[in-house]
Amino acid sequence: MAQSVKCVTLEKRDDNLPARVPYVFPAPGTDPIADELRARRPNGTLLDLDGVLLQDDGLAAGWNALASFIRDNNTVPATMRELFILRTGVLNNAAYVWLQHESVGREAGLTLDQLRDIRFTPSFVSGAQSKHSTSLTPELSAALVLTDFMTEAVKVPQPVFDSLHKFLSDKQMVDAVATVGTYNLVSRFVVALDVDSKMDVPVPIPM
């Protein structure tokens, strides 16, 4: 039986490509949870990610509360926050995440060379261990390696944790780990549901 879908608005969102479930885009003013999501989006336009989340209002509301904190009230530096987000997208082959956040990373202060290092540095390799020079600062290099271990190994060795902790307070470390954990959820969610038909699209190369 075909699922009923709420009113779809006509604004351009992402690439307007389908996911594995229908998008739900309530008209403005008809759904308070959708309106809360819309308030966080540029020009009030819901993303395809939002359209999938709105299949379940409870999930969408909880997701929005967490994402709002991670994006807007995080205590880690903005460049590091975006490194965490972009790197999880790389490691999980989530092109959708990269496409949503590359411009945000640039606005936060990441340079083209830094974006390329986030995209291409092999897993578990710090700037000091790399055979090639890196544009990442020591704190961003430490953040990259923490992201690699959290995402691919799950267990983070104490020296890896400590290497970032020397740049961040206890509170910031909690926020750092929460950011990586949250965007592992986001990236795996969008890949499994093929949001915006990006599941098989390679993570872009920064230009």
- State the end-to-end CA separation: 45 Å
Quick check: average pLDDT? 91
Low-confidence stretches: 1-11
Fraction of helical residues: 55-70%
Whole-number radius of gyration? 18 Å
Write down the oligomeric state. Answer: single chain
By DSSP (H or I, 4+ residues per run), the number of helices equals 9
Features:
single chain, 207 residues, globular
What this model shows, in words?
With 207 residues, the chain is an all-alpha fold. The protein contains nine helices and no strands. The chain has helices at residues 32-39, 48-53, 57-72, 78-91, 95-108, 112-120, 138-153, 158-165, 170-192.
Brief overview:
The protein is mostly helical.
Chain-wise SSE layout:
Blueprint: H1 32-39, H2 48-53, H3 57-72, H4 78-91, H5 95-108, H6 112-120, H7 138-153, H8 158-165, H9 170-192
Helix pairs in contact: 1-3, 4-5, 4-7, 4-9, 7-8, 7-9
